[in-house]
Task: structure prediction
Amino acid sequence: MTEPNRRTFLTAAAGTVTTASLAARAAADGPNATIRAAVLGLNGRGQTHIGGFMGTQGVKVAVLCDPDRNVLAERAKQFESKYGYKPETETDLRKVFDRKDVDVVGVATPNHWHALAAIWACQAGKDVYVEKPGSHNVFEGRKLVEAAKKHERIVQHGVQLRSSEAVREAVEHLRGGLIGKVYLARGLVFRQRPSIGHATDPDTTPANLDWNIWQGPARERAFSRRFVHYNWHWTWEYGNGDVGNQGVHETDMCLWGLGLETLPSQISAMGGKFLWDDDKETPEVLSSSYYFPEQNQMIEFEVRPWATNTENGVGVGNIFYGSNGYLTINGYNKFEAYDKGGKLVAKNSDGDPVAKHFANFIAAVRARDTKIQHGPVETAHTSSALAHLGNIAYRTGRRLKFDPATELFVDDSEANALLTREYRKPFVVPEKV
Result:
């Protein structure tokens, strides 16, 4: 069977994989049945996914998948040494979706694969933990939300700070008026990002890498070592710069802390490259602003590559400003609140929330209840889309007007073209999911 036909079959068959059928299987297997996981993408965050799943009671990693056979073999060897059994391995993620011994999928691929892999998993009846950003562009983020709803899947976004008890307490303080009326949130990403130099092209595709699968939805192009395996982050084709990388934790925190469940109506951004003559396409410095007129609130976001100083102790995190003070979120698990005079009025911190975030996902899977999720699929769309809108404002070089209801820019065909991409068959994010 050809791949397009197989995918068509999966899409058509997905309607039969419902909450009812999952409940029937759970009843047959019992409430403590082992949940079998697959991890897609093993070079970076995929290792965290392995640890997150294996560290959650009642979960077993059944399959590891990566298009780089060398990485795949190394991770499988490490896995067997640590956990005492051999997982199955695949190089083509589509084969993972066909497997009946996989219940949940962890998506830790490069950004340009996140939404499509998660959508295909939903269509195949799998629940999904997808890394940030949940999408590579605004269009596919909305399609991911639609896929999760249509196929009744649990989709958890990898914004693990939402599972920090300290950060959840901070949000309660913001809601409860500790710093008064909260009118502005700032997201900060001050990270050391050195030069990546210049790669020599054309280059020969390594025999161990399935370059076709690695490229997936992106346009066909020759292999280059400037992309594989990390520096794809700094290209528009595969990544989204640091506002769409580390920054999605902070865009999500801005929206969550302000209580916003919609996208902004006005966006502006400015930045550029100032330090390095290298292969990065995305800006080293980016300052973006987002205005929500109906709520009379703003978000400001700043990316810069050189941590010469922090802001009230925050180098990567958030600051919320209110009529009676301000509150800082430092990293993933710490907050401090101050009154107008600068007096500390509340603080808390806890441990790394990653394990809690995976446990929360599995609890929602077992309960078939999206209401108990800390990082529901909607966050995968809105927090990622906020980063995408800032990047579009930077790339067009002007202030943009956006309609949150239609998720389109107002009378701006150039900006609207950047809300999606041309997909390479058969790796197409469909209009109807």
In short: The chain has two domains: 3-161+356-376, 165-196+226-349+385-417.
